[in-house]
Amino acid sequence: MFIIIGGDGKEYGPVSAEQVRIWLASGRANLQTKAKYAGTEEWHTLGEYTEFVGDPAAPATTPPPMPAGEIDPKTFAADLIARAAPLDIFGCIGRGWGLLKANFWSVVGTTALVIIVAAVANAIPFLGWLAGLLLGGVFNGGLYYFYIKKVRGESTELGDAFSGFSLALGPLILTGLVVGLMTLAGFILLILPGIYLAVAYGFAYMLVIDRKMEFWAAMEVSRRVISAQWWRMFGLMIVGAIIAVLGVLGLLIGIFVTVPIFIGALVYAYEDLCNPPPRA
Fold this sequence. Notes:
The chain is mainly alpha-helical and about 280 residues long. It has two domains: about 60 residues, GYF domain (Dna Ligase, domain 1); about 200 residues, no CATH class. It contains twelve helices and four strands; from the N terminus they run E-E-H-E-E-H-H-H-H-H-H-H-H-H-H-H. A four-stranded antiparallel beta sheet has the order 2-1-3-4. Helix 3 packs across helix 11, helix 4 packs across helix 12 and helix 5 crosses helix 12.
C-alpha cells in the first residue's frame, strides 16, 4: 500500500499499487510524484519503486518535438536549466537499481552484448583502433537509446541497443570524435579542463539520438545544462564509477550488473535535466 503526495501538496492513501498505476495512466501522477510505503516515513519518487519502473501503464515522458529549423543551444539550454530541479545523486542511483531489478535479464543481457561486440570490434588487428575511434560514439548512443526507452516505459527490443547505426550514424561518429579530441586536449593542457569536459559532455550522445540534434548543438546543450549542476553531475559519475569498479572486483562478471546501474543512473539524470516538467 502506498501514500502519495498529490499536485495540491496533500497526502492521498493508503492505496494499492494498482490504483497508483491507474493514476499514472490517467496523468494524475507521474514518476516524479513523491510516495512512500504506508507505515513508513521515507519518501521517494514513484520512479524509484520497482512496482512502477518500466511499467507499461506508466505514461512515457517523451519530450516535446524539437522546434523547426536550427536551434540556438544557449536559448534551448537556458529553458531546460530554468525548469530542472536540483539533481538528486542517490535518487538517480536508486532508480537505476530499480530499473535493473524490474528488467534484469533484458538490461543485463543487452548491455553485456553491446560491450562484447564493441570489444570484439576494437580487437580486430590493424582496424580495431579505427573502429574504436569511429564507432565508440555509435555504440554508446545506441545503448543509451535502449535505456532511455526502458526508463520511459516504452517497449524495447535488442535492436534498439544498436540503433545508433540506423538512426544517427554520422552525428554520433562526429560527436564521438569531437568529444574525444576536446576532452583529450583538456587533459593534455591542464588536466582540470579535461575533467570538466568529460563530465559536461555526458548527455551529448543522448541528445543526438533522442532529440535528433546535430553533434555540436548536442555538445553545447549538454555542456551548458550540466555546467549549471556540474558538481552534482560529477558526484553522480564518481558514485557510479565506484559501483562499476565493485563489479570488476566481483570476479569481473559483476560488472555486467553494476554497469547497468551506472548507465541507468546517467539516463535518469538526463531525463531530470534535459526533459524536466513543463512550467506550470
